[in-house]
Structures are given as structure tokens and as C-alpha cells.
TrEMBL record, chain B:
Keywords: Oxidoreductase. Signal peptide: none annotated. The keyword 4Fe-4S does not apply. The keyword Oxidoreductase applies. InterPro entries: Ald_DH/histidinol_DH, Ald_DH_C, Ald_DH_N, Aldehyde_DH_dom. One of its GO terms (molecular function) is oxidoreductase activity, acting on the aldehyde or oxo group of donors, NAD or NADP as acceptor. Gene3D superfamilies: Aldehyde Dehydrogenase, Chain A, domain 1, Aldehyde Dehydrogenase, Chain A, domain 2. This is Betaine-aldehyde dehydrogenase. Residues 33-475 form the Aldehyde dehydrogenase domain. Belongs to the aldehyde dehydrogenase family.
Amino acid sequence: MFLSTTGVLVTIDRLVSPASRATEVLGGELTESSLKSYLNGISGVDAVGLESRAADLGSRSIKTTSKAWALDRIISLIDLTTLEGADTPGKVRSLVAKGLTPDAADPACPRVAAVCVYGDMVPAAVEALGASHGLDEAPGGINVAAVATAFPSGRASLAVKLADTADAVAAGADEIDMVIDRGAFLSGRYGQVFDEIVAVKEACRRSDGSFAHLKVILETGELNTYDNVRRASWLSILAGGDFIKTSTGKVAPAATLPVTLLMLEVVRDWHRLTGEKIGVKPAGGIRTSKDAIKYLVAVAETAGEEWLQPHLFRFGASSLLNDVLMQRQKLASGHYSGADYVTID
Amino acid sequence: MSFLEYAPAPESTALLSLQSEYGLFIDGSFRAGSNPTFSTISPATEKHIATIASASSADVDAAVAAARRAYDSTWSRLSGRDRGKYLFRIARLVQERARELAVAESLDNGKPIKESRDVDVPLVAAWFFYYAGWADKLDHAGLGADPRALGVAAQVIPWNFPLLMLAWKIAPALAAGNTVVLKPAETTPLTALLFAEIVQQAGLPDGVVNIITGAGSTGRDLVNHPDVNKVAFTGSTSVGREIARSLAGTSKKLTLELGGKGANIVFDDAPIDEAVEGIVRGIFFNQGHVCCAGSRLLVQENIHDEVVDRLKARLSTLRVGDPLDKNTDVGAINSAEQLARIRELSDIGEAEGASRWSPACDLPADGFWFAPTIFTNVSTASRIARDEIFGPVLSILSFRTPAEAIAKANNTPYGLSAGIWSSNGSRVLAVADKLRAGVVWANTFNQFDPSSPFGGYKESGYGREGGKQGLAAYLAPAASSRGAVERASGAAEIDSGNVESLALPITNEGSSK
């Protein structure tokens, strides 16, 4: 699957229209049936084999200096998240403060990659960040990610989803976490899912012509099979997603190591096919440092170590950060501190 | 330092308390051997681990005599239930001492600690638990009621899975009511001697298990001993042949589990990432020191290049090195002798025109090491496609149709294992049906379970180990056929009694229709 139908290695210019990826790779006309036959032609997944490989990766023993590096890296890969009906500007300000200063006792502690909030909370997050807004713009800055497209169910008309997206981008969101239409995917309407992602990507275009980064949430817990996850991953990348993300966190099971491993295999294959690097974001259910380190191992040994940077890998998490901070303190001091020695946001 | 150069994570050897010298375990206690002692070394460092006794013919006599006494006086008189209790006790002791056994195994054999810890030792315990359960159910082993034990079993095992092969041999033998004299391989006696301590801990009657160490001549004395009733051997085909020859015409029963050149067949509809994992597991597990290794990869021609590319990428992430580091994937070659053989055959492969490839990896200076190696452009006539290399060396061949895959897979004097990779279930079944191999794995490789019989076709040996079939190697049908007939007619009476009690007008004649 490394070669396009024409047999040559494809390189894609990311500045052209989002759907061009698909036409390049599928070669020629982009139709519902060409999309379907391409996705159905992707090799299947053996569930037992995938899970046993994930378990193998999970048994790596990460100690001493490797562990210290891993803990710091995990923090810098976190999308610190609050997605509650009860969210307020005050809560978001507190989240932002925590993201900027994860460990009040250690100024050397790295900052998180982004805060992730609902669309209406973007202005509050942008305001709270002030000069520290922007992973690439400000030194030590962090991004604002907004969930959009009728998150988490995605059950709204396309117009509403696009408005939701454009609204968040206009308010200053650097990243949009959209959900795919799982109903359309499961009933085989791949073209509809594809078109929607393309349209949302267009809605991510800012007035200066640049795009907010688009993370495409597959909601793997609803797709149910690994074969579906692999197809949906390819579909999302073909349609222009910058990241593929496991879950909303509102459906169980959320992120699992085998699902994330599978998605990492897809981005690895996409990179071999096109030279282009797509990000992966497991979200929901990763609560401990021990678990998070297993993900780092899976990333490094599957996609490659260069994926361990905020532009290519994120953890969607809220409670993970404090566990990492406690492990970090333990590594520095030699003894466990406790929940009262890390701040709640 | 990059993240992927994981910091060292060595398993502690502190819990391992080895003696400096080990004797022969005969009649429940250790005693000195009559032949000159030898040293067992760690293949990863070539450092001395312990001094090991070597058994002379007289020592073999003593061991067989002890086993005979134990058979006559205690073990054959115990009920199956009581034998089972001892086996359960051994299984639990193996679990309790699991870490210690894993460390000893990796130290002495060179295999990665994650394999000895996660595969070998758990399977050892599983084997004893499984056959413990059989000890009081031998009537259902398929040999009719009251099958009898054979007597004294002479067992000779190889160095690739020292403790696991011991369990494969000892557990069914004891469950069936035999007593044993076992000889571990010369290069890996350590865990068998720790097992002798477990036998003592379990309070097994003296002489039921005897473990004698030594070189090939000790094994020869043992299998040729006139008072042995059963011989079980796992190892090379040449030694197996010699044993079969020397046992011909005697009343000894024989089980041989010999070499292999397993075909791992990958069809173009295979789950590709998992197939690549399975190829790696098939040939690089235990440094390829596996008799059922998938050492011949048969790939459908239309995906050949893609599979080779993916395999190379995957091999580049394998970690070769210190067997006691928890992150090591491939450990040391077991002996200098084996390393020389692997080198010789690999050089022949190159000379015969195959393309050789290994990932870049730094091998330690001391010890016996061989980088994972794959050969492409291998022809079916090449020696690396025919001979068992018994090392981390994979020969890749291609095929065009299922019929060709089957023909190539079967075109070997061996017949121990095979693997099939395809998402098409009916194809898997159809191909498996035509492969002449004792074990065929579908979409997996090198999976073992005590309930599954294991053994070979053709030059891979005969007899089965594991499962109900594994018991048949250590049992004979009841001595008196009259007894069996009586019991059978008794059963018929009970049947007709039941029929009568149901008050149905059916005669015996009618019911036999």
C-alpha cells in the first residue's frame, strides 16, 4: 500500500485544497465507489495479533533517565481538557493557569501542548493565555483547541457543524477537534464522511488563508472493529485531517493501546506513501504515567521517535497530568508526595 | 541519548542463590558424579556459572536403579489422586520460584528475560497443572479403562527450552505413573538442577525423579540402559536416528521430537502488520533456537517486496543484547558450537547466491552473538532453504498460487510446524488440511498450550507431547484384556437396566440396532 495506483511515490503539497490528497493517492476520479474500493482494499487487522503486539510494547521497562525524559515529554504532549456542561470562564482560566504552570513548586516543569475546551470557551481561554498563546508563536506558548461539529455525537446538519467550526476558529482556536459522522460511516456512506471532513477543513481556514489544525475524532468505541478503525483513519487522512484522534472521551471504551497502535501504523504507512506526517491523539481513559509511557513506547517503536513532539502526538487527558507530576516529584525526591502536593485546576 | 535507547533495565540476580557446584540428583539427594566435572557458562558473557557433575555408566545404573525402586515400591502403588497432589505441589512451587527460575534460565541459556519470564516459566507451571489434573483421570486418556504406566522413563532434552522441555517430559510421565531419569543438555543444566531442589521441596518420594548431568555419552548410556522401559528424546534428527537404531528390536517405547524447517505462508490477503509480527515471532523468538521455528517464509509473489520492506523496518527495532535486560528482544546464541554452525550455513547461503540482510546492531564483544538475518532470493534448492539452521536466520521464498505454496511447504524431509496468514478463513482451513506438519498455526506462530498435542511428521519425529495424546506416550492399555471385557459387559448391563427402568418395550437386540 506504499504506492499509488500509478506506481510512483506521491508527494503532496499541503497548501493546495484539502481534497487533493485523496485525488493524488486514489489517482484520478474521486467517487463514492472509488473511495469505497480503495478503503475496502486495505489489508485487514487480526485482532488477536494487534492486541498481543500492543501488550508486548506495553511490557517495555522504562527506567531512570528514560523515565525522567518520558515524564517531561508526556506533559508537553498533553491537551489539558475540560469538556463539561458546567464549564465556566473561571474554570477555563484555572485550566489555562494549570497548563502554563503544571507544577507550582518547579518552574522547570514543561508546559502542556494545549488546552482543549468547548467552542464557546475559546475566547476565555485566549484571553487567559494572553501573550502565551500559540505553541509556535510565543516562546513557551500553548495552543487553544476547541471541539466542534456538534461534539460529541456529531448529530447536526452540516451547516450547523461548519458554523460551529468557523465560530471557534474566528474566536482564536488554533486547533479544531471534529467528530466524524459515525452513522454515515457505519452505513457505508464513506463519501459523505469524506465530504464533511473536507468541508470542516475548509471552515478551518482563517482570514489570512492559513488553516487551524484539524484533528479528526473517529470515536473508535462506536466504530467497534479494528478494520473499521483502520478504514476510518485512512478516510480521515485522505480527506485532509492533520491529526487522527481516537475518542471524544464521552463513549466507553475511549482510547486503548491497541487502537492507538493501529492508528500509528496507519500514519506510519501514510508517511511511507507520501512523505507526509500525520499526528495521532489518543483521548480518554489514559490516567496514569505508567499507561502514558506505554503509549510513548508504541509511538517510538511504530511511527518513530520523531513523532514524540506536540505537532505529531497528543494525549487528550485531564487527570493524567497530576499523576505525571507526582511521578516526576517522586523521581526527583526519591519518595512519593501525594495528591495535596499537586494543584487541582 | 534518544528515547529509543532505553536506559538499562536489568533484572536483578539477587534472588538467585546458586551453589558453586552441583552433583547428580539420584534417589532424592545430590551426589558427586564419577566422571570429571564440567563448567556451565553464560553464553552472553562466557563467564563461569557453576561446576556440574558428569555421570558415568555406573552413575546411570544407580539412577535407573533408584527410579526402578521408586516405581516398584511407591509411585506405581499410589493412587492417581495422590500423584496429582504431588504434581499440583510442583506446579505451585514453580510459580512461587518463577522469577528465580526465569533469571537462571536466561543466565544459563542466553534467552531474553522477557521470554523466560513471560513464556517459558509460566508454561512450565501450566504443564504441571495440566497433567496434575490428568493423574486421576487416566481411564479417559483414550486407552480404555485402567491403563498402566510403562515403568522407568529415560528422558533426554535439548538446550533451547531447558526447563520447559523438562516439564513437557516429566509432567506427563509422572501423571501416568512412571518414574523418570532425565538428562538435561550439557550447556543448560542449571534450571534442571534447581528443579531437583523443587522436587525435594515438594517432598516427592525419593527416586521418582532423578536428574543426571553430563555430555552425549551420558545420554547414550541412559537410553541404552536395559532396565529402561521408555525413551523420550527431543533434539537433533541425527541423534534421534541413532537412538531409533539402537532401540530397534527392544521392548522400549520411543518418542522422538526432532528438527524442523517450518514454512510460514503469507497470502496476499493476510493482515499485513500482524503477519510481519508473526514472521518475527516465528523465527527470532528464542534466537531462532526453536525446532518448530518458521524458518522458511513463503510469501505470495505480489506482496513479496512490501512484506520484505515492512519486515526490514520491523527488524530495525529489535533490541539485541544482554539477556537479563527486560527490554532485550533477542539474546545470545547458546554455544560457540551453535554459533559456528549458524555462521557456516549463512555463509553457504551467501555463496549460493541468496541476498543477505541484517539490521544495524552493535553486538557485545564477549559471548556468542548473531544479528537477526534475512535472506531473499533464496531458491528451493539452496541449503538455507533445506537445512535446519537453528538460529536467527530467515530464508524468504515466494509462491504464486495456493497449490504452489502447499507443494513448497511440504517439500522438506521435516514436518513439524507451519503457519498460514490469510484473512480468508476457508482458505486457511483448506491449506492447513494439505500441509504435512504436526502443528499448523493460523494467523499466529509459536503458540503453545499444554492441552494441545505437539509433534512431527517424517524426519521431525514421532509420538506426541502435550494434551491427552501426550499421555499415550507413557501408558499402555490395561494388562488384562479379560478385565476390560468384564467391565465392558458390566456397562452394557447398566445400560439395559436403565432402559428397563424407563419401562420401554425395547430388547437388547432392539437397542443394539
